[in-house]
Design a protein that fits this description.
Helix content: 55-70%
Order of helices and strands: HHHHHHHHHEHHEEHEEHEHEE
Structural class: alpha+beta
Number of strands: 8
Distance between the termini: 67 Å
Radius of gyration: 35 Å
Shape: elongated
Strand content: 5-15%
């Protein structure tokens, strides 16, 4: 393998450092909430760490003679670095609380952390004149694992790899910059900075270890919270899928589910689908063939519903109840329902041509728009999602009216008007719908 191919492979590995390539809306929402909380906690951790270290520096240097210009510059640089570090933490927490630049904040704060730490070490090297090879002796070098731990709060592998690369490159430039130093010169340089190995300096280092431990505890707690949240959400979705339509369970928030549990009245377009003369197929087919037949029919219903945003409330043997406008009404619900009906008829026509059914499969589709009661009913041992009301009953009667009208697709005038398709449909003469007291105008497609 050539050096170029090895480099390309390494870059590809870094680029692929991500948890999941494709995220659902619910997962994206949970991760965004976790990122926001992580940014706020990371900002608080920076402020607490900066405060502890600044207090340690002030207390440990209170009794030191600052007549040495080198020591005075070092202490001032350290105090300024810690103040800026704390200010960065406050700014990050404030921006996260306002939901500003949530996706960019982790990278920005990591870069600024590295700028502060490496800038302090660079000042010691080029500003004060201390050899870069002695960078490990300075307490500020111990801030590097603290800032890397702070970046780990976000659980972003590519961010962690970027931060590690920045520090490795920056520290390498410091460590190997300048001329070669002889052992005698090294001893002289160490003698000039012997204060860095004093009791006060070691106290600062111990405080840094304590701060790193606090941040790592925060990282562990963040991971635990995310795990518990994921388990709760997974358990909730698993329970919801037992009685909610499969299209609803993944997208419902806790508030939306609570609203369904209480029940509410919403405008919905209801579609009933049924196979005509299904008893003929049941009598002429073997059980295995009938099972395949029903499965194939339902697969086409699912395809048509998903294409136009419909929610399949339930399959009833050789029929189906499809809803448009659940869990909340949207513009174009009626139009999408009509398009779904036309798509389903096209799919069944192709199915007939492919399988050469004798007699061919024929459908009855009834569509109506109006208010329904929508909610989850029953006790904890048996919950059920349901829609009830006059609108549902009328849609069912319209589907049955397709037999007398000799038309596979009928819709109420309310649905046609809501869809804005008056020019594409024509009125059908039919008897009053059984059980419906008011007069209903039914319409079929033109042509």
């Amino acid at each position: 393998m050539t050096p170029r191919s090895r480099t390309r492979a390494a870059l590809g590995l870094i680029n692929n450092l991500r948890t999941t390539p494709v995220l659902s809306d619910a997962t994206h929402r949970l991760i965004r909430e976790a990122d926001t909380g992580a940014l706020q906690r990371a900002g608080m951790a920076r402020m607490v760490t900066a405060g502890l270290l600044l207090l340690a520096v002030v207390l440990t240097t209170a009794g030191i003679d600052l007549s040495n210009p080198m020591a005075s510059k070092q202490i001032q640089a350290a105090e300024l670095t810690l103040v800026l570090f704390g200010a960065l933490g406050w700014a990050g927490a404030w921006l996260a609380s306002k939901r500003i630049a949530i996706e960019k904040l982790p990278v920005i704060t990591a870069i600024l952390d590295a700028f502060l730490v490496l800038g302090n070490l660079a000042f010691s090297h080029w500003g004060v004149g201390i050899p870069g090879s002695l960078f490990a002796a300075f307490p500020v070098a111990w801030v590097v694992p603290i800032t890397m731990a702070a970046a780990a709060i976000h659980y972003q592998p590519r961010l962690q790899a970027f931060v590690a690369a920045v520090y490795v490159i920056g520290l390498s430039l410091l460590a190997f910059s300048g001329d070669w130093i002889s052992p005698a010169q090294r001893q002289q340089d160490l003698a000039e900075i012997e204060g860095l190995f004093s009791t006060q300096a070691n106290v600062v280092r111990i405080v840094m270890v304590f701060a790193a431990a606090l941040i790592l505890i925060l990282v562990a707690r963040q991971g635990r919270l995310m795990l518990e949240r994921a388990v709760r959400e997974t358990t909730l979705r698993a329970n919801l899928t037992r009685y909610l339509p499969s299209e609803l369970a993944p997208i419902l928030t806790d508030q939306a589910f609570a609203s369904l549990r209480q029940g509410r009245r919403i405008p919905v377009t209801v579609m009933f689908v049924d196979i005509r003369a299904s008893t003929t197929f049941g009598e002429t087919m073997e059980p295995v063939q009938l099972a395949i037949f029903i499965t194939s029919f339902r697969r086409r219903v699912l395809r048509a519903a998903s294409r136009h945003g419909g929610v399949i409330d339930k399959f009833t043997g050789d029929g189906a109840l499809i809803l448009f406008g659940v869990p909340g009404a949207q513009d174009g619900d009626a139009r999408r329902a009509l398009a779904c009906g036309r798509t389903l008829l096209t799919l069944i026509e192709r199915w007939n041509a492919k399988r050469r059914f004798d007699p061919p499969v024929r459908l009855g589709i009834g569509i109506h728009t109006g208010d329904v009661f929508c909610g989850v009913v029953g006790d904890e041992s048996r919950l059920e999602f349901t829609v009830v009301g006059e609108t549902v009953n009328i849609a069912s009667r319209i589907e049955q009216a397709t037999k007398a009208a000799d038309c596979e697709l009928l819709a109420s005038q309310e649905t046609i008007v809501a869809a804005g398709e008056e020019d594409l449909w024509t009125e059908v003469e039919c008897d009053p719908l059984p059980g419906v007291t008011r007069r209903m105008v039914l319409m079929k497609p033109v042509g």
